[in-house]
Amino acid sequence: MTTQEKIGQVTQLIAPDTTPEMIRKGEVGSILSDTDSKQVARLQHIAITQSRLHIPILFGFDVIHGYRTIFPSPLAMAGSFDPRLEENEAAMAAAEASVGGQRWTFAPMVDIARDPRWGRITEGAGEDPVLGAAMAAAQVRGFQGSNLADPHHLLACAKHFAAYGAAEGGRDYNTADMSLERLRNVYLPPFHAAVEAGVGSIMTAFNDLNGVPGVEDRLLLQEVLRREWGFRGFVVSDYDAVQELMVHGVAGSPQQAVQEAFSAGTDMDMHDGFYLKNLPALLEAKRISMARLDEAVRRILRAKIELGLFDHPYTAADAATAATHWLTPATRTAARVAEERSAVLLRNANGLLPLSKSLDTIAVIGPLAESGSEPLGHWYGDGDPKDTVTILDSLRRRLPNAHILVQRGVAVEGDAEADARAGIARAVAAARQAQVAILTLGESAEMSGEGGSRSCLDLSGHQEQLLEAVVKAGKPVVLLLMNGHPLTISWAAHHVPAILELWEGGSEVGNAAADLLFGEADPGGKLPVSMPRTVGQIPIYYDHLNTGRPGAMTTRYSSRYLDLPLGPLYRFGYGLSYTTFRFSNLTLSAPSMSPDSSIEIAATVTNTGHRVGDDVAQLYIRQRVATMSQPVRELKAFDRVTLQPGQSRTVRFNLKGHQLGFWDNASRFRIEPGTFDLWLGDSSAGGLHTTFLVK
Ligand code: BGC
Questions:
Q1: Which among 593, 591, 599, 571 is positioned nearest to 681, based on CA atoms?
Q2: 0.90 exceeded by the pTM?
Q3: Residue 239 near ligand 1, beta carbon < 6 Å
């Protein structure tokens, strides 16, 4: 390869910045975000037939939770506590995307997020490293399959390396600053899990971590990723992040930016063309070695070979063929089941849900009932809002003979006072005439996702006023929450009898919601993230340290707020069902273990109610005394079970020594002897309790 051809391989551009001439000269190795499948095929054809070495272009796209069939957001799906469901979602999304000509997805987003103000919290698995790691690995398996060369699979990309979710104040792109102990114990495990699952690429983070922007972080890219984890794939920058080194103020010129990023280990440059423009001079001046360029090119070519791109460079099907692969009954059913398993029942006073199908008058109120676009979220792939089954569509179909009174009430945001007042009055009138009011409230897709940070997580616009007015109308109210960020809903939590968190529910949100509302499906999802009472409590997460003065309402001198009760509004791992469960018979195979052995834990879960339902058995531990403060609890394992009324099932977990260790601030992994508490239950509070010893 000529130097120019090599530099082409480390360059990723968007189609509008790519000319046929550049492709002929081998100046572009990858193109992102081109969903025009005819154009994809045309550009690929130029690369294959008219460039000197016939190297195919790698087309990449953000297939985050679906391509044409949009599944629930990753945050929602994490609430399923069902990695197999996640794996299946990723596999289906990969198959749809490859028919659109894509072979690389910028997913999974595996950033742990403990600040619900951060808009991108919706793209990841929430606050917990063990759940996050399980979901990360599942997505890698799903996207990449067992044989990457199968054209229905995509190369996955774990992002954003690292600690992007810890952006200060929840402001996107912001600084992250943390101890190595926290980085390694909390933020890195999902990346490590993705690498262990064989992820083919890694994307660096925009943010600086301890003063070092992601694209030039040698500690992460060299020490951790390559040396410790043995990662063999390639690293891509985030969009324009090489150029942004100058804005961060760590590079004084484009050449310096490229030298920093490329020599630190960022193999491919996304979008800004900085490698293309600046590597020639840097190589010439020997500020970058040819060996380093060869290494990066080799990694990228290896990925192309493993993807089978040289054998079948064209996966984009013509429109008619593609249509038979997209939004099929199978993908739609999968998206519907995914949403049913992800939704979280937050409240169900007096068993208001499930509703009877013989209702004859219902009011459907709120700005989101008829929306096809908002449930798709900010990353909706190549999805089309017209393909969404809305809440209203499905209710109409489910209750063909009922009288359905539809009132938008207010907009998600931006209504003038007078319009809101009038809308609320109409909604209240509708509620009064109905046997039950179903309210759809939450966020538009644009209110979360990238650049979607919010300082206030209350229901926006006049939605809270609408909610309170409708509740005061005196009829039973079901609140369907449709949102990207976790919201602060303290009033609703005390006054609205039934609350179902649907998150950004995807193309089948309506069908799933109707199944859940009428009891054709049982809500069994759990919160993958704590829901705060107010933003003033943020960050709030369940696996915090104990402090020297743990929060207690009985004393001022404890770790709490004077003006709030302790804890979040709804805790991590929480979620109700239409049935009830009991945990019993917690047993351990031995009272103690050594760091290199394991212990078997078993318990019985019984469905004590009258309906079939799902519960998630969650195993938490705490080391009582160690050389460093340890979290008050840490999730170690979970298992989602479906039980018939009266049925019991034994859940079993194998806890290994290495799951009990932690990283210290000198990057040493330690498993320390001592007493551990163990809880087994169905949320991050309570549960059956015992202790065991590590010797
Ligand atoms: C985002 C990435 C995304 C990339 C390409 C960036 O702005 O941070 O997550 O993969 O754009 O669309």
A1: 571
A2: yes
A3: yes
